[in-house]
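User: Sequence recovery, please. Input:
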């Protein structure tokens, strides 16, 4: 059986690199072949799985420099049945591409908003007052500079070989340990031994203690939360959805009891699943 894996495209994005790494893992561990399917947006990537057009989707969820990817969280809240199969943590390196020969000739910079944000210090120091234009993906930015010799783009270094565009400056991200978490989403996850659980919930009313009570459920059972954040529900100003990462396995009796109790203090509760985390190294990426 060939497993179709959706990701943000076109070829050469960091999402594609994460999808390639997961496809390699499938081949080695489950002896399954994969077909990568690029989509023009993260939302379309997730909807392709929800609609049954693809088997899995690999989507970015959080960057160590810029925090969470809002469109991923918001889309997952809208889609009820998607579950996390695995997490892939990818080291992110950004390079500056241009067909020009010097930074002094650059008049415009294109890239995905996350990439622009992860390189903002470098951009401010080297290209101050230059317009920064967001694109749907880092590789879409490379397509822009093919027509504009005075334009630059920020993308992953491996895109240089794929698109035959020269790198003007390598490793321009503001922090050397820049990395991104990617979730592998599916409708029918295979059972795995997970080390983390992700969930989201809304509270019945915006009143004192409405958030404290759900959090207390975990504190009373000595369960660690590695991430908590909020996103607007988009229904009314001041209403939020809360996203949590729980350290542990969903089969742990303490966690099972906590999740059961949590339903008493939430309006809507969505458990995205218990999953393992795989950390990639630069050498792993070079082999893809």
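Assistant: Recovered sequence (288 residues):
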């Amino acid at each position: 059986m060939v497993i179709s894996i959706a990701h943000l495209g076109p070829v050469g994005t960091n999402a594609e690199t994460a999808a390639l790494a997961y496809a390699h893992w499938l081949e080695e561990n489950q002896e399954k072949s994969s077909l990568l399917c690029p989509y023009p947006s993260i939302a379309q990537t997730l909807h392709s799985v929800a609609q049954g057009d693809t088997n899995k989707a690999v989507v970015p969820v959080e960057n160590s420099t810029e925090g969470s990817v809002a469109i991923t969280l918001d889309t997952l809240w809208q889609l009820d049945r998607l579950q996390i199969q695995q997490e892939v943590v990818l080291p992110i390196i950004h390079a500056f591409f241009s067909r020009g020969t010097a930074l002094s000739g650059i008049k415009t910079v294109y890239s995905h908003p996350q990439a622009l944000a992860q390189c903002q210090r470098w951009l401010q120091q080297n290209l101050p007052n230059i317009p920064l234009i967001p694109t749907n993906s880092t590789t879409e930015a490379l397509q822009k500079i093919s027509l504009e010799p005075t334009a630059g783009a920020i993308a992953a270094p491996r895109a240089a070989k794929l698109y035959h565009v020269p790198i003007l400056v390598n490793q321009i991200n503001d922090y050397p340990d820049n990395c991104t978490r990617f979730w592998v989403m599916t409708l029918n996850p295979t059972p795995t031994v997970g080390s983390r659980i992700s969930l989201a919930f809304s509270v019945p009313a915006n009143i004192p203690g409405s958030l404290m009570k759900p959090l207390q459920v975990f504190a009373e059972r000595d369960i660690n939360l590695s991430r908590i954040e909020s996103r607007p529900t988009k229904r009314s100003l001041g209403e939020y959805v809360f996203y949590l990462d729980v350290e542990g396995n969903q089969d742990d009796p303490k966690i099972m009891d906590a999740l059961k109790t949590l339903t008493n203090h939430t309006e809507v509760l969505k458990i995205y699943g218990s999953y393992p985390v795989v950390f990639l190294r630069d050498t792993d990426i070079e082999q893809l």
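The radius of gyration is 20 Å.
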